[in-house]
Please model this.
Amino acid sequence: KQEVTQIPAALSVPEGENLVLNCSFTDSAIYNLQWFRQDPGKGLTSLLLIQSSQREQTSGRLNASLDKSSGRSTLYIAASQPGDSATYLCAVSGSGGGADGLTFGKGTHLIIQP
Amino acid sequence: NAGVTQTPKFQVLKTGQSMTLQCAQDMNHNSMYWYRQDPGMGLRLIYYSASEGTTDKGEVPNGYNVSRLNKREFSLRLESAAPSQTSVYFCASSLMGQANTGELFFGEGSRLTVL
Model:
């Protein structure tokens, strides 16, 4: 059974710092990996998706990397801002392509101090 | 730009009552999902529908039933609600079935309390 772990569970940093969120998964036979953002009381917003054949994806100040063989992904946030405060979730899809859903980590609760 | 729409957003039930959570997507997606999110447990898959006319159990299906009414709609039914079903429920959809990325899109969630 696939298990996804996110470290740290919570993180508080001053505004302007660069930071890295970590995600690990136990079964490397994945189709893709997604990073989501969740604001309190809201749904999940997809940030980045990395296909299993890719090494990284970038969107603005966000960069996600994938090392499938070691079962690891990182989400790098550059020049953090208070608006980045949220819970960040990592999820992986099975080798079948994800039609049977994603397996989620429990998230990293991020606070950016003004 | 509706995306994935869930109703109701909030609901309070008494133990033993039944209710249906509705979900609709307007992105012509093939696959739809129901997750529940609980503190300390993360998101767990209840049921999914890989395509119109098919449904399958996820990680925590007990106490729930689903119906894929058509390509747009996927409902989740609690036949006899229990306090353990107090949770936030999320519906999601994905294009799948074609050459695509498999990106999931989520609704805003339905907060259910069972007393």
Q: What stands out?
A: The interface with chain A takes residues 4, 30-31, 33, 35, 40-45, 48, 50-51, 56, 58, 90, 92, 94, 96-97, 101-109 of chain B (CB under 8 Å). DSSP finds no helices and eleven strands in chain B. The CA atoms of residues 74 and 96 of chain B lie 16 Å apart.
